């Protein structure tokens, strides 16, 4: 048996998930060991990509189009690092928040579902075949629905069912598009897409796949399932769903539009307009939200919209640069949103509720979690030097250079609104005048405060490393045409 | 001769669409499910007419048989739990219905136009598959694609099933108070008669898969019917102590598949690259274990929850661990 890093990145979490399911008592230990192994495999892959550009493995020895090849370039590795890095920290957080016999069942089922989810996401980032991508998003969908309903509350079950309907509808639309592509070019691999003659029928196929993906990534107005699904899951599950899962469909969107360019400038503008709708509508809903986790979930809708604005900021001409801006925002949001959901979960656990209006009334102040929440907000609002700032800045820079001032205006309005809704929370943290009991300061610093803090610091600190990140993403020309 | 087949095809096409419409418009849930099952059987026939016997078998066994059973099981559950007459859902306004119909109709027409105008990309995988058949280890092209050329996709499809059963098992709310459906005594005799036949059919489907239509998914679905009958006739009652064995059975297929894929590497071979002299053995081994996992998983999905301690009388005379 000889292993290569590409295979290991997918198979390590798969074996881990099976082991954690078969041996539920040891699930946490198996889960952590698996995360460590997967992290090592990603690091190994990163060094190979760093040394050689893109690397690939034709599975079964069959070359595409008959077989399926795994391929990694800079963008794949960036997404894998985000997924395993955030995943590892959320796992550590989960370890603490699921401890105790009352949560034994959560502990037991969290690990196999999360590791299957990881298998699916890693598989997406290494795939070069659109049918294989369909299978992978199905793996992600079922594991993600499982995580959504893990808390077992009525609201979570209802939201999970809605999420499953949306998710399966999206996957079926994608599959219909895949069938259309196969009908026309007789191939399913990316190289076949690049070589295909543009035609109305190919554009129809692309449209089907893109609508399916937009539904899965919850771009306005197809976001209806997201807020309640993400707000009602347990905190670690919310962090994974919001920080990582929606990014898988976004990543497929970026890849597909690289290999099958959108046929018309108007469509690029339409995507941007939907993004603008998400920023404005999501912002209004976040300003009106009554519960903290709901506010954070609506902020995900906003951020997804922002990523699509980054994609459309300079029209078709500037797409190569726009993809990079979108990728930066994806990474920034992944880390910051996971941190924010984990800290919101901690605040809810300590205070006992997450009603924003009453945050200032409680004598209990989980200060470290509140501090983490503020740090994550800094990156999501886009204050320097955070990675969120770099992403937003490159979005606006490209839009200004192309003379598309309307995207700049929408981004500025969205930023102002985000300051508004995060200030609602911050004011609750910092005001004490409605507290009737003696303030019990920094009750409950726990081990679970550490992972979100690291994530939030990462989201801010990585802004300083934006240049090396950008040059790494370009390894293997992910936005060129060589799959 | 050809004319009669054209007439048959036309009738089939009309019947499939009519059944689809009927199963969606009927208000009676039970009737809708029955119509759906008939719809599935006729679709299977359509697949046969399209010269896709493998898809036809899958449609009949999984799309119709297992799905129909799951739907009926769910209906039973919903009616038992919500005996207090659930409020009649508000009727959808006529305008909304018409708008929806127009939107979907236009979309379908657009898709049909794009489909009709699409250039055909030649034979697809046919030539590639024909070239590689001799070194695939099996004689049936569909099995060669599923278990060799594109085995990675198939492995991940089995993982989807695993994810589904884990997701179902972790839901406990609202399930424990609904009694499991059971067959009467006459049906128990029927079950005893049919069980051996189903086992033979399922195993045959699995075995024949390497040279003719059939294979793990179809065989597994047919064998799952054994589990369904055992559960319905109370010949087998799932108990908490069976959880461990069931968990092993769920992951058996995926685990063996993935382990073989990794173990064959080395000496320049990629994952999933079976050495030619062992290819047939390995493929049969994988298919056999995957069939067991699929059968047990589908039966467990029918049961619908992690086995819990039953307060009622101790029933059950053992049997297989398939719940």
Question: How would you describe this protein?
Answer:
The complex is a heterodimer of chains A (483) and B (323). Chain A is an all-alpha fold and 483 residues long. Chain A has 18 helices and 4 strands. Chain A has a two-stranded antiparallel ribbon. Chain A is globular. The two termini of chain A are 27 Å apart. Chain B has 323 residues and is mainly alpha-helical. Chain B has helices at residues 2-25, 29-49, 53-81, 94-117, 126-132, 141-149, 151-169, 185-208, 216-232, 243-263, 276-303. Chain B starts with a helix and ends in a 20-residue tail after the last helix. At the A-B interface, helix 1, helix 4, helix 5, helix 6 and helix 8 of A face helix 4, helix 5, helix 7 and helix 10 of B.
Write a concise keyword list for the protein shown above:
heterodimer; A: 483 residues; mainly alpha; two-stranded parallel ribbon; 18 helices; 4 strands; 73% helix; globular; B: 323 residues; disordered C terminus
Layout of strands and helices, then pairs:
The complex is a heterodimer of chains A (483) and B (323).
Chain A lengths: L4 H18 L4 H26 L2 E4 L10 E4 L1 H24 L6 H23 L3 H19 L5 H32 L4 H6 L4 H18 L8 H7 L2 H25 L5 H24 L3 H21 L6 H33 L12 E2 L1 H15 L5 H15 L3 H26 L9 E2 L8 H12 L4 H8 L10
Parallel strand pairs in A: 3-4
Antiparallel strand pairs in A: 1-2
Chain B lengths: L1 H24 L3 H21 L3 H29 L12 H24 L8 H7 L8 H9 L1 H19 L15 H24 L7 H17 L10 H21 L12 H28 L20
- Can you count the beta strands of chain A? 4
**Shape estimate of chain A:** globular
Helix and strand run of chain A: HHEEHHHHHHHHHHHEHHHEHH
Mean residue pLDDT of chain A: 90
Radius of gyration of CA atoms of chain A, rounded to a whole number? 21 Å
Oligomer: heterodimer
Structural class of chain A: mainly alpha
Distance, first to last CA of chain A: 27 Å
Strand order of the largest sheet of chain A: 1-2
Structural class per helix/strand content of chain B? mainly alpha
Fraction of helical residues of chain A = over 70%
Strand content of chain A: under 5%
What fraction strand of chain B? under 5%
Helix content percent band of chain B = 55-70%
* Overall outline of chain B: globular
Uncertain stretches of 5 or more adjacent residues of chain A: none
SS summary, helix count of chain B: 11
Give me the Rg of chain B, rounded.
23 Å
Low-confidence stretches of chain B: 312-323
């Amino acid at each position: 048996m000889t292993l290569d890093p590409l295979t290991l990145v997918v198979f390590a979490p798969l074996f881990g998930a099976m082991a954690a399911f078969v041996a539920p008592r040891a699930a946490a230990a198996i889960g952590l060991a698996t995360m460590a192994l997967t992290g090592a495999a990603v690091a190994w892959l990163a060094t190979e990509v760093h040394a050689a550009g893109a690397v690939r493995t034709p599975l079964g020895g069959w070359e595409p189009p008959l077989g399926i090849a795994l391929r990694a370039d800079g963008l794949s590795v960036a997404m894998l690092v985000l997924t395993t890095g955030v995943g590892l920290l959320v796992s550590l957080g989960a370890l603490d928040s699921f401890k105790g016999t009352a949560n034994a069942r959560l502990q037991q089922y969290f690990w196999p579902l999360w590791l299957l989810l990881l298998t699916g996401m890693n598989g997406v980032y290494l795939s070069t075949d659109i049918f294989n991508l369909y299978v992978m998003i199905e793996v992600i969908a079922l594991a993600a629905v499982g995580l959504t309903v893990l808390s077992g509350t009525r609201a979570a079950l209802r939201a999970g069912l809605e999420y499953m309907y949306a998710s399966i509808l999206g996957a079926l639309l994608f599959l219909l598009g895949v069938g259309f592509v196969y009908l026309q070019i007789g191939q399913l691999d990316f190289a076949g897409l690049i070589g295909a003659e543009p035609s109305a029928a190919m554009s129809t196929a692309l449209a089907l796949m893109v609508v399916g993906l937009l539904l899965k990534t919850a771009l306005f107005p197809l976001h209806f399932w997201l807020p309640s699904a993400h707000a009602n899951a347990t905190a670690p599950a919310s962090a994974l769903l919001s920080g990582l899962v929606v990014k898988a469909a976004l990543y497929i969107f970026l890849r597909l539009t690289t290999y099958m360019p959108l046929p018309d400038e108007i469509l690029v503008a339409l995507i941007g307009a939907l993004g603008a709708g998400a920023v404005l509508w999501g912002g209004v809903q976040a300003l009106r939200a009554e519960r903290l986790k709901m506010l954070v979930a609506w902020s995900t809708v906003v951020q997804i919209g922002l990523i699509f604005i980054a994609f459309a900021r300079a029209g078709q001409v500037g797409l190569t640069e726009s993809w990079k801006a979108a990728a930066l925002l994806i990474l920034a949001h992944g880390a910051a949103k996971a941190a924010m959901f984990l800290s919101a979960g901690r605040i809810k656990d300590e205070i006992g509720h997450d009603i924003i209006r009453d945050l200032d009334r409680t004598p209990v102040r989980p200060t470290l979690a509140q501090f983490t929440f503020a740090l994550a907000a800094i990156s999501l609002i886009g204050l320097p030097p955070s990675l969120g700032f770099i992403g937003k800045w490159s979005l606006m820079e490209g839009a200004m250079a192309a003379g598309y001032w309307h995207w700049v205006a929408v981004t500025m309005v969205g930023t102002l609104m985000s300051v508004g809704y995060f200030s609602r929370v911050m004011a609750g943290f910092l005001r004490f005048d409605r507290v009737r009991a003696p303030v019990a300061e920094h009750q409950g610093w726990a081990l679970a405060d550490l992972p979100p803090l690291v994530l939030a610091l990462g989201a801010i600190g990585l802004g300083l490393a934006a240049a090396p990140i950008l040059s790494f993403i370009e390894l293997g020309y992910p936005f060129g045409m060589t799959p | 001769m050809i004319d009669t087949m054209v007439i048959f095809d036309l009738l089939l096409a009309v019947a499939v669409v009519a059944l689809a419409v009927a199963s969606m418009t009927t208000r009676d849930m039970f009737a809708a499910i029955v119509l759906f099952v008939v719809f599935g059987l006729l679709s299977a026939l359509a697949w046969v007419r399209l010269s896709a016997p493998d898809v036809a078998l899958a449609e009949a066994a999984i799309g119709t048989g297992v799905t129909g059973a799951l739907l009926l099981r769910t209906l039973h559950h919903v009616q038992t739990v919500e005996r207090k007459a659930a409020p009649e859902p508000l009727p959808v306004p006529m305008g909304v219905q018409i708008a929806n119909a127009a939107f979907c109709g236009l979309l379908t027409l657009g898709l049909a136009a794009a489909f009709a105008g699409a250039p055909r990309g030649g034979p697809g995988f046919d030539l590639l598959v024909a070239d590689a058949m001799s070194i695939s280890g099996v004689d049936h092209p569909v099995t060669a694609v599923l278990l060799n050329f594109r085995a990675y996709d198939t492995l991940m499809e089995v993982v989807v099933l695993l994810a589904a059963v884990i997701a179902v098992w972790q839901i406990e709310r609202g399930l424990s108070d609904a009694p499991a459906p059971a067959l009467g005594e006459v049906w128990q005799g029927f079950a005893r008669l049919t069980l051996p036949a189903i086992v033979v059919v399922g195993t045959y489907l699995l075995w024949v898969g390497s040279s003719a239509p059939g294979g793990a998914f179809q065989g597994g679905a047919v064998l799952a019917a054994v589990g369904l009958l055992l559960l319905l006739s109370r010949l087998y009652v799932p108990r908490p102590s069976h959880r461990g064995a069931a968990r092993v059975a769920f992951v058996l297929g995926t685990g063996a598949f993935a382990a073989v894929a990794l173990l064959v590497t080395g000496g320049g071979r990629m994952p999933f690259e079976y050495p030619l002299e062992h290819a047939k053995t390995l493929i049969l081994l994988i298919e056999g274990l995957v069939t067991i996992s699929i059968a047990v998983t589908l039966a467990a999905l029918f049961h619908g929850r992690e086995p819990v301690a039953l307060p009622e009388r101790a029933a059950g005379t053992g049997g297989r661990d398939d719940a």
